[in-house]
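From the shared-data thread, chain only:
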Amino acid sequence: MPLVHIHITREGATAEQKAELIRGATDLLVRVLNKNPATTFVLIDEVDTDNWGIAGQTVTARRIKDAAQSSRATPQQA
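Structure, as tokens:
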């Protein structure tokens, strides 16, 4: 009875995309480990970017910083 736990940031993954993740993870366990799809569970957790950190910063803060750097690097159109 395998359990696959997928964590993604909460940024608008559609129901169709999540269903594809569930199908894909299930298919992978069936193909690689010969698991029964009827007893294979897939759990998707959507995490707010304020609650996900990388290198000591939240994803939200990193994206704000990256956006500011990108806007400075792009020449302004007159």
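DSSP finds two helices and four strands in the chain.
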